[in-house]
Amino acid sequence: PITDDGINTKEFLDAASGAVDEIPNLDELGSTAFAPVKSDISGNIAKVQAKLNSDPVKYNTLEKIVLDEAGTKDRTATQGLLWLKRGLEFTALGLSKNLSNTSEELSKSFTDAYQATLKQFHNFVVKGVFSLAMKACPYRKDFYVKLGGDNDQVYGELKVWVDALQTQLNQLNVLYAKGSYDKGL
């Protein structure tokens, strides 16, 4: 949760890890579409986790990590958090688009989300990988059945999760923009 000091680092990383842990469900559907995202998110979680582990009291919020690394040469956790944020924005937007348009396939929702979030940061090779990966997204019906069914309860729970995630991502966006902490990363 968000406190007066900021976003609790451990809880944010636990939630991000939980989201990544759910991605194997897609693997079971025979889709490798999210493998690059899963790998990237996991690596960036590890970078922020290493910083937290170095001093759990000092780095108990994400904001404290970014502020502590500002102006230093080693901004590993700040960079990891930036890319973690971007990967989660892609995921949140793709799910949000798919939930709001119940006839749209995942490949369309996530392709549009990629265009709006990550594409601007990738070179032509990575763009090609993502383009192919989005074509390999599971079918909508298979995806939602794997989550527990294509029904209002699953949609409702997923929407609550996406909205909560988006609130935290918005706070991180404000932090990074306010201090230009993403420059040079």
Would you tell me the structural class of the helices and strands?
mainly alpha
Largest sheet: 2 strands, antiparallel
Into how many domains do the coordinates divide?
A: 1
Arithmetic mean of pLDDT: 88
User: What order do the helices and strands follow?
Assistant: EEHHHHHHHHH
Q: What is the terminal-to-terminal distance?
A: 26 Å
Beta-strand percent range: under 5%
User: So, CATH architecture?
Assistant: Orthogonal Bundle
Q: Please give the CATH class.
A: Mainly Alpha
The CATH homologous superfamily is named: Glycolipid transfer protein
> What percent of residues adopt helix (DSSP H or I)?
over 70%
- How many strand units? 2
Radius of gyration: 17 Å
Query: Would you tell me which CATH topology applies?
Result: Glycolipid transfer protein, GLTP
Shape: globular
The largest beta-sheet arranges its strands as 1-2
Number of helices: 9
Low-pLDDT residue spans: none
